[in-house]
Amino acid sequence: MSITSILAAMSKGPNFSRTLVVSGPSGVGKSTLLDKLFKEFNKDPPRKSPGDYFRFSVSHTTRRPRTEPPEKAEIPGQHYHFLGSKDDFKSMIDRGEFIEYAEFSGNFYGTSFETLKSSANDTRRCILDIEAQGVRKIKASNKLDPVYLFICPPSLAALSSRLDKRGTDKGDALRMRLETAISEIEYAMNPSEKAHDFIIVNDDPDEAYAKFKRVALGYETAEDDAEIDDRNSATAQGVFKEVEETLKNRT
After folding, report:
1. Which CATH superfamily is domain 58-118 in?
2. Per-residue confidence at 1, pLDDT binned at 50, 70, 90?
3. I want to staple 218 with a disulfide (CB 3.0 to 4.6 A). Which of 15, 30, 112, 145 is the partner?
4. Whole-model pTM above 0.85?
5. In angstroms, rounded to a whole number, what is the distance separating the alpha carbons of residues 155 and 202?
6. Between 91 and 229, whose confidence is greater?
7. DSSP letter string over the chain?
8. Does residue 114 register a pLDDT over 90?
């Protein structure tokens, strides 16, 4: 790769200063994409270093940190601010400390004003990884002007397989995640909602990351290559039709 190509790949686009809101069903690969982004553009994640590009907004949650497998164990203050109880979370709600919060699979998740405030004078781009409920609340609040990015699975079957292989949910918990995924995809891809600025199908890992990186760097389009962009759009529409058919068959 030439020096010119390297510099172009590292440059920041016009949307870089705006918060990036990333959402998508559990198991779609958001964490993998974010981890890869931070490793490429930050010197020593999660520590702050001069020249870093991104800052991950750490949400609050009432669920317990994951400890298995050990290499993916969640670290308090790095992955989430783990609260002691739902009462603690509700007290923060009562004090108006959240810009958005949502209940998901029996636990609360929220983004505090304090978390965003601490990055207001930061040159790094702030990234939020939140659920669809949180996206709705941010949109309704009119307190942010972010870029909205949705990560979509190539199919419901592929998502189910990924969740099953991950092994963190079984039985009813797994079914609940799939039901939530159907709802999230329906909202994200419904033309009348216009919920997101970008939709990236996480089918081919390298291709998905290339598009994800371009959006994260602040560019107006997710892909320079029209053929790849058209294929991404076609796959996304196929998933949306699959969700529509699933919902239609239930009525």
Report:
1. Guanylate Kinase phosphate binding domain (3.30.63.10)
2. very low
3. 15
4. no
5. 10
6. 91
7. --HHHHHHHH---TTTTSPEEEE--TTSSHHHHHHHHHHHHSSSTTS--TT--EEEPPEEESSPPP--SGGG---BTTTEEE-S-HHHHHHHHHTT-EEEEEEETTEEEEEEHHHHHTTTT-SSEEEEE--HHHHHHHHHHT----EEEEEE-S-HHHHHHHHHHH-S--HHHHHHHHHHHHHHHHHHH-TTT---SEEEE-SSHHHHHHHHHHHHTT-SSS-S-HHHHHHHHHHHHHHHHHHHHHHHTT-
8. no
Q: Residue 136 is encoded by which pair of tokens? A: 């709705």
Q: Give the whole-angstrom CA distance, residue 97 versus residue 127.
A: 19
For the chain, percent of residues with pLDDT exceeding 70: 84
CA–CA gap between residue 106 and residue 63 (Å, rounded):
8
pLDDT of 209 reads: 94
Give start-end residues of each CATH 3.30.63.10 domain in the chain.
58-118
Q: Which residues belong to CATH 3.40.50.300 in the chain?
A: 3-57+125-248
Residue 177 reports pLDDT greater than 90: no
Dihedral over alpha carbons 138, 141, 142, 147 (to 10 degrees): 0
Please list, in sequence order, all residues whose beta carbon lies within 8 angstroms of the beta carbon of residue 75, skipping any fewer than 6 positions away.
65
Helix axes 132-141, 171-189, angle to 10 degrees: 40
Q: How far apart are CA 251 and CA 238, in angstroms?
A: 21
Q: Which fold has domain 3-57+125-248?
A: Rossmann fold (3.40.50)
